[in-house]
Amino acid sequence: MRTSVGGLILAIMAVLGSAGQAFASEPRPAEEPFSALVKRADCDKNGPTQRDGTIAAQLNPRLTKDMRGYMDAYRVSCAREVVEAVQARKFNKKAAVIAITTVIVETHIVNVAEKVDHTSLGLFQQQDPWGSEANRLNPTWATNAFLDAMVRKVPDWNQATTDAQIGAVCQKVQVSAYPERYPVQVSDAKIIVDALWTTTPPAGRDSSGYYNPADGTFHLRNALSDGASNAAWGTALETIPGAIILTGDWNGDRKDSTGYYDPRDGTFHLRNDHSDGASNAAWDTALETIPGAIILTGDWNGDGKDSTGYYDPRDGTFHLTNDHSNGASDYAWDTALETVPDAVVLTGDWNGDGKDSVGYYNKRDGSFHLRNALSDGASDYAWDTALETVANAVVLTGDWNADKKDSTGYYNPGDGSFHLRNALSDGASDHAWDTALETIPNAVVITGDWDGA
Predict the structure, then answer these.
(1) Which residues have C-beta within 8 Å of that of residue 318, sequence separation ≥ 6?
(2) DSSP state for residue 276 in the 8-state scheme
(3) Its pTM surpasses 0.70
(4) What is the pLDDT of residues 406-430, one digit of tens each?
């Protein structure tokens, strides 16, 4: 049994006259001094959105308990991350209410980044046995850990109907020294969840598109289905022989865009908008001196911006950099991957920690091998498929269901069909559709979150 940092926050708020119902008749200031006393971490790695601020303003006069007047864009962004994690697991609203009730009591929706209460960290104040510090400060991971514990400890959680019963579920998971605090906050949790719950997919879902090397045109679609392009534009890129098309969120605006690498002179050219025009970032390297270098893109350090790197198939080494410039690699390591002929190197955030890492697909046996760390070592995920039977299959990676974890799929150039799976395992496709893309010779299939919504 333990106390929670929520007790400290509650004490501070009480001193300010903000606990209980002292100011229930009117909104209170949008921030209390607790945030200045305890270090907090971002919930959304890209920070709160304008919509988060709008929702906060709408919530403050509607809430009646501890959070009345104290919701701001930051707290809404934290609550949003929790709710989206619940939705990604296909749990219902009640699970979200249980989770939000818990974070209200534990931290008043602050992602606490210092160990005020024993070893507790994060929105849920999870202690060391729950997981690493980085994981506990990751709202998606922390929410999933909470849901796992809820299902394990309270199998009949969905039968809780009253505020008291919902509070009891929270208590069984958290084992707090103050179980009486949970039922009081359930009504506010319901209001917050209702404001954030949506039937549309959560933000951050990747979709597909293609580049036509015959005319230098890009064609992007936001939905995982066949249909007209949502963005299309022409370039003069067809005049650059062998140009390697790149995709990524270069400026941290939550929207992926395109770019290219010119293997003739080792230059990178990246653009932030879905249109033709001058590069927003361009730099020269000596990478053209490395025959067969495989260009990689990803957010290696979790700053919300994708950058570049390369894999050298001659010696199995990776070389990644955080900046859009030439210079020494920020991450470099050696592997034995050069012993796997024609290995398809993959990048993605496999575990939802906000940082991309690498892996590979083995064409010889249809197996995937993915690793969470930017280092050599055993695969964290490995599975076999029958994909080696699909001639010239193009392997794809992306977050297809907006659960903040990348997974895999493939495009079949024989019939223009896409086949994507949400789990890092073999099995039926979660998303599959046909296109006429097979009629475009040498089309380069690309994936990304084009609309950021």
Answers:
(1) 296, 309, 310, 311, 312, 331, 332, 333, 335, 358, 374
(2) S
(3) no
(4) 999 999 999 999 999 999 999 999 9
